[in-house]
């Protein structure tokens, strides 16, 4: 009972902190994620980065369905451990690395990534926009589910269904 109580407090505390910090934990539907990977033209051997990876579903789908390698970053302890466990459960530990902390921890990897995946609120996209577009490589594409950057225009858009609602996927380049 004590272990369960500690787990529930940890889980709820992490969710509360993430929400207060402007990054509520909301998981995208598999169909919407797959549509993102298709719009980005993801293919085998490419590297994807998920900033705010939550439960690592996007990375697991990229690895299993497209043969990609992945790096996920989450500043929440709950998101970090949930992602690590899911990667292990889906036997993708050789293909996916999970990092806990700030996005700046993977600046060099962002520059080398083929695709950066984002499912972050507009406010968060506005905060990371200068940093992200400064650090991505010339050939890197950024795919954003449902939300958009204030100062960059997408090069391509597609409609999908996420969590029962029609929404847009936007593809960006530097």
In DSSP terms, counting alpha (H) and pi (I) runs of 4 or more, how many helices? 6
Shape by Cα distribution: globular
Helix percentage range: 40-55%
How do the SSEs run, as a string of H and E?
HHEHEHEHEHEEE
Widest sheet: strand order?
A: 3-2-1-4-5-7-6
Distance separating the two termini: 51 Å
Low-confidence stretches: none
Residue fraction in strands: 15-25%
- What would you call the structural class? alpha/beta
Q: How can the largest sheet be summarized?
A: 7 strands, mixed
In quaternary terms, these chains amount to: single chain
Radius of gyration: 16 Å
Number of strands: 7
**Overall pLDDT score:** 91
Structure, explained:
The chain has 174 residues and is α/β, with parallel strands linked by helices. The chain contains 6 helices and 7 strands, in the order ααβαβαβαβαβββ. It has a 7-stranded mixed β-sheet. It starts with a helix and ends with a strand.
Can you lay out the helices and strands and say which pair or pack?
Layout: H1 2-20, H2 30-40, E1 47-51, H3 57-66, E2 69-74, H4 77-89, E3 96-100, H5 107-112, E4 115-118, H6 122-135, E5 141-145, E6 156-162, E7 165-172
Helix pairs in contact: 2-3
Short description:
The chain is an alpha/beta fold and 174 residues long.
């Amino acid at each position: 009972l004590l272990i369960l109580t500690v787990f529930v407090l940890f889980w709820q505390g992490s969710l509360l902190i993430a929400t207060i910090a402007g990054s509520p934990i909301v998981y995208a539907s598999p169909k919407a994620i797959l549509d993102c990977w298709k719009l980005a033209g993801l293919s085998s051997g490419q590297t994807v980065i998920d900033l705010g990876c939550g439960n690592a579903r996007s990375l697991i789908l990229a690895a299993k369905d497209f043969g990609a390698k992945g790096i996920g970053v989450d500043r929440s302890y709950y998101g970090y451990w949930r992602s690590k466990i899911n990667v292990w459960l889906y036997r993708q530990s050789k293909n996916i690395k999970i990092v806990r902390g700030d996005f700046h921890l993977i600046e060099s990897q962002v520059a080398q990534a083929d695709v950066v995946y984002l499912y972050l609120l507009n406010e968060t996209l506005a905060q990371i926009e200068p940093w992200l577009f400064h650090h991505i490589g010339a050939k890197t594409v950024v795919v954003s589910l449902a939300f958009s950057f204030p100062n960059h225009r997408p090069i391509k858009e597609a409609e999908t269904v996420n969590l029962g609602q029609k929404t847009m996927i936007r593809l960006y380049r530097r």
